[in-house]
């Protein structure tokens, strides 16, 4: 190997700058692998078309061949090119189904996913006792890891997490399988842990917080910093994030069951801040099969419809103006574990989203 010397200013002339020439190596010399090919900051250009193709779903498998002795079904004849259908452009799918991205987030079932109002970050909760923070700007097809993982409630599984809707998602409500919910910042720092009630008091009106496991929680859609939680102590409690002394209001469900308490499985809000909360405005008895939980509950954005989902594998749609009987019912929907259900906010409440036992 021979290196050429750097020419001096006298040799190069006053108008030429000193230059460095590369090593004089033969093309097949193995030392070329250790030499830099370029200098300075390098920019990485990503081919977005390739990235999109990497997330495209695989084509469905071809149909199995017909059994012996049977002829395959005849193919549909091609449509007439002169028909009026050709004049209209193809309608786009209402929901994107052509691409998918599998994110290996948790080791046990995911209980909830919440997206912040700006749409830049989402948080997942799981029965593995953790919540995980993901930032879309830091993710790619080769890097799908969360930027933070927390275990907010000392080995308790997490029922749900929810970003606050009225402060641009600056706070996060965490509902664990424990008596105390938490308020975190969008970065995962603890702001507030709700008060735990006295389990030895019989009258739930005299306790400052839940005395047993919380089963659900939600933010107020109209009052900033106000949340509601439901618990297995037969109460729904309304909290103000600015107050650390206890709940602001309480609703006690009088049950005829054992011990005078029944498990409240979920809570959803169409907010009436004035109260009073002494008796229900609407009530549907036997909405689902007795001795089963009704975990899924959601209001439509206009407050006229309610969707419920129960352990009896029924999904039912109700009209709040005529609440006695459901408008429609979906049977045989497999939901072995408590699963949330929500209305779509962008298509006039005509679509419901939930999960089932399939992968």
TrEMBL record:
SUPFAM superfamilies: WD40 repeat-like
Superkingdom of this protein's organism: Eukaryota
InterPro entries the record matches: WD40/YVTN_repeat-like_dom_sf, WD40_PAC1, WD40_repeat_CS, WD40_repeat_dom_sf, WD40_rpt, WD_repeat_GAD-1
WD repeats: 103-144, 207-249, 297-328
PROSITE patterns, sorted: WD_REPEATS_1, WD_REPEATS_2, WD_REPEATS_REGION
Residue ranges with Pro residues bias: 59-76
Tagged with keyword Repeat: yes
GO cellular component: nucleus; site of double-strand break
SMART domains: WD40
Positions of the UniProt region annotated as Disordered: 1-103, 329-359
Feature: compositional bias, Acidic residues: 81-95
This protein's UniProt keywords: Repeat, WD repeat
Low complexity: bias regions: 340-359
UniProt feature, compositional bias: Basic and acidic residues: 43-56
Keyword Cytoplasm: no
UniProt-recorded name of the protein: WD40 repeat-like protein
């Amino acid at each position: 190997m021979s290196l050429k010397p750097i020419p001096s200013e006298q040799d190069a002339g006053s108008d030429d700058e000193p230059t460095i020439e590369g090593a004089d190596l033969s093309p097949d010399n193995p030392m070329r692998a250790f030499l830099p090919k370029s200098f300075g900051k390098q920019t990485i250009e990503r081919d977005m078309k390739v990235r999109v193709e990497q997330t495209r779903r695989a084509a469905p498998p071809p149909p199995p061949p017909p059994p012996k002795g049977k002829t395959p079904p005849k193919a549909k004849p091609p449509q007439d090119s002169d028909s009026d259908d050709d004049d209209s452009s193809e309608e786009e799918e209402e929901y994107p189904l052509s691409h998918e991205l599998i994110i290996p987030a948790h080791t046990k079932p995911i209980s909830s996913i919440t997206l912040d109002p700006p749409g830049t970050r989402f948080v997942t909760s799981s029965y593995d006792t953790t919540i995980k923070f993901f930032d879309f700007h830091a993710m790619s097809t080769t890097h799908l890891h969360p930027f933070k993982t927390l275990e907010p409630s000392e080995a308790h599984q997490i029922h749900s997490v929810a970003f606050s809707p009225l402060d641009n998602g600056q706070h996060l409500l965490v509902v664990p399988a424990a008596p105390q919910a938490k308020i975190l910042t969008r970065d995962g720092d603890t702001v507030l842990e709700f008060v735990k009630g006295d389990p030895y008091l019989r009258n739930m009106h005299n306790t400052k917080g839940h005395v047993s496991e919380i089963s659900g929680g939600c933010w107020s859609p109209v009052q900033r910093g106000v949340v509601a939680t439901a618990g297995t102590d037969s109460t729904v409690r309304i909290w103000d994030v600015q107050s650390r002394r206890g709940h602001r209001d309480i609703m006690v469900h009088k049950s005829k069951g054992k011990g005078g308490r029944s498990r409240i499985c979920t809570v959803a809000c169409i907010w009436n801040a004035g109260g009073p909360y002494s008796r229900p405005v609407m009530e549907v008895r036997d909405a689902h099969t007795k001795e089963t939980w009704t975990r899924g509950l959601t209001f439509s954005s206009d407050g006229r419809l309610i969707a419920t989902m129960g352990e009896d594998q029924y999904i039912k749609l109700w009209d709040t103006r005529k609440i006695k009987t459901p408008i429609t019912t979906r049977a045989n929907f497999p939901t072995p574990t408590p699963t949330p259900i929500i209305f779509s906010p962008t298509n006039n409440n005509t679509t419901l989203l939930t999960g089932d036992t399939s992968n």
